[in-house]
Amino acid sequence: MFENKKAVVLSSGGLDSTTVMAIVKDKGYDIYSLSFDYGQRHVFELQAARRVAEIYQAKAHLVVKTDLTAIGGSALTADIDVPKHRKADEKSTDIPVTYVPARNTIFLAYALAWSEVLQTPDLFIGVNAIDYSGYPDCRPEYIQAFEKMARLATKAGAEGLFQIKIHTPLIQMSKAEIILAGSRLNVDYGITHSCYDPDPSGRACGNCDSCDLRRKGFVKAGISDPTIYVS
User: What is the pTM of this model?
Assistant: First the structure.
């Protein structure tokens, strides 16, 4: 049925999703990159996502606009301070205020719709259950449940045209393991953006959870961190 291998790849322009895109490219898929302008605190991640899509020669890069600020409830979509200098035990036990309510469910729903139009069963997302175990929509059981729903809720699934598969190649990897995997595929992490609270020029704050995970990941991987930090 499928003349070319196609994959819808969710891309934030961050370290994880860029590593996933490199993996998908290495597997020989035609890439259809999907990003979201959802009212996040800054535009730098979308700029990074566009760079990544260009570098990996995506067949298309779709940026969907959906306003999650109308719902709020997150430090990324509302007037809530991004937490800084959090301790390790806080990160492992709490669902942080940087969690955006139902974000991955919303994003995957769009990816699912696009996959039907493209007639491809393959969706890739860079969720991680180790570094982001506090995020309920980054856990394996969530992905499995969404995949089951996708197979029931689509024309492709109902008519037996193809069965949706949500690929999560990073889900059981540490940040250092992700960086090493990407480095083997020559990922330029200098083009990616991870910080939740960058300064007006786009420099990473260096102290939010995402910056902390990124910094420690490069140290553990024994690879120089190309990120420009404020502190």
Answer: 0.94
